Amino acid sequence: MSVRTIHLLGSPVLREQSSAVGTVDNEVRQLVTDLFDTMRADDGIGLAANQVGVARRVAVVEVNDEPSVVLIDPVIVERTGQVRGEEGCLSIPDIFGDVDRAQRVVVETTNLEGERIQLEASDLRARAIQHEIDHLDGILFLDHLSPLKRRMLMKKWKKLRKGKTGFLKEVSPAVARS
Ligand code: CO
0.85 cut: is pTM over it? Predict the structure, then answer.
C-alpha cells in the first residue's frame, strides 16, 4: 500500500488542466492503487491525481458500500436533475460549502483493462464523480460558490493556515483512523 502526499489549496498543480492518459500502463494502474490508498487513509470519498501532484486525467471515487469507481480520461455524457448538497475536499480540509450538481450522471471512462465503458451514478456518488472530474480541469468546489460565500470560506482557510508553510499534507493511515 502506498499513501501519497496530498496537495493543499495554494499548490499550483490543483489549478492545472490535467493531460489525457490514453494508454493504461502499469504506471497508471499504480497511480489508481495509490489514489485509493491515499483517499481511504484520509477518509475521503474521492481523489483526483493532481491532488497527489500528478496532472493526468485519473481519479477515483468510493461512496459507502457502492462499487468503487475508477476514472481515466472521463467524460460526462449525460446529466439529469439538479440537487444542492454540501461538499468538502481533501485538498481544503475543514472547509465546506453547498454546491449544485446534477443528480444523476452517465460517465464514459477508460477502465483498468484499457476499455472505454459507460457507468451511471446518482446522488452522492454522482456528486463525487462531478467533483473529481472538475479537479482534472483545475476546478475546485469553491469555484461554484457565490463570491460572498467564497470570500468567507477563504478567510476561514487563511485563519486555519496561519503559521503553516507549504501546501503539502502527509497522510498517515494510523492518524486518519483515530
Ligand atoms: Co476535491
Answer: yes
